[in-house]
Amino acid sequence: MIKYLVLVLIGLGGGVTVGNAVAAFFTILLIMPRLIQITDTRDKIKIYKYMLIISSVFSIIIYFFDLKLYLSKLITVPIGFILGIFVGLLSSALAEVLNVIPVLSRKLKIKNSLKYVVWALLGGKVAGSLFYWLLLK
Amino acid sequence: MDKEKVYLKINKKATVEPDKIVYLKDIGEVYSTNDKLKKDIENIKIIDRHNKEDWGYISAIQIGQKVLEKHSNVDLELIGETEVLLEFKNKEEKKPFWEFIKVAFVCLVLFFGGALAIINFHEDVNTRKTMKDLYYFFTGVEQENPLLLVIPYSIGIGFGVMIFFSKIFSPSLRRKKEPGPMEIELYQYELDMEDTILNDTKNNKGS
Hints:
Structural class of chain A: mainly alpha
Strand content of chain A: under 5%
Strand order of the largest sheet of chain B: 4-1-7
Helix content of chain A: over 70%
Number of domains of chain B: 2
Oligomer: heterodimer
Distance between the termini of chain B: 44 Å
Strand content of chain B: 15-25%
Number of domains of chain A: 2
Number of strands of chain B: 8
Radius of gyration of chain A: 20 Å
Radius of gyration of chain B: 28 Å
Largest sheet of chain A: none
Helix content of chain B: 55-70%
Low-confidence stretches of chain A: none
Order of helices and strands of chain B: EEEHEHEEHEEHHHHH
Largest interface: A-B, 70 and 61 residues
Shape of chain B: elongated
């Protein structure tokens, strides 16, 4: 009996730690603030918060249980697109990208051409991803 | 006779051409009710010709001293910064071809760098398995490479990057003027750099 109690405690402790880490990850990255700024929905921040909590629980259910929905294959198209948007935001929000571009633009004095630079970055990411899925095995 | 009140607002940074004498009006603003006095003070010489591109620095106290040497009968009020960073910089001539080369270089680096980064990221977090699991969850079919899921995903990445960096699309001018993360980061970087240069120049003068 006591064995199970200890296991439950360990699981709970680990879960709290990981949950905190996920929340911290989302807060530190600029993804949520940026989306809120774009949509101008600062007052709806509570909904977004609950959404994150629901999504964490949902993802755990998918991960640990053998569930399937038997939906049409086409449903994966919009889902893939949305997943991609998130990863695009994530990879741009990582501090490295945001720090490299100012340094490069300053060193080479190309402040006025930054939009091309961003497009190059964007194209590179899409090309890299397509390359990974279609050609790399 | 009463002393005339003169307000002197000093800028944080001034960009001046190296082959010109720096006057007070180049590094700040003067206000006084006496127009002639204002003109006089604006044309006080602060620094001589420098003759080469460089960074310099002058403190508000030194500026105040120069003003009081010329006009001892003014009541000087300093507002604004306590020191100015001076950037001696020649007028830039446009070199469109060189600019193009530089932009092309940065674009190439970022294109291939971005591609490498996203591939590394996929390998790192084992996206292949995640995508397979997700495809299985939604459709109930085990598929090794679910193209129907991952091609829209790849296009979505592009949209995500665009959403992150692009300016806001809105009819409101107020919303359009909000800067993106890149503009903020650029500005922050420049501020930090100027601060560091100011600090370095100060320390070098002391030793």
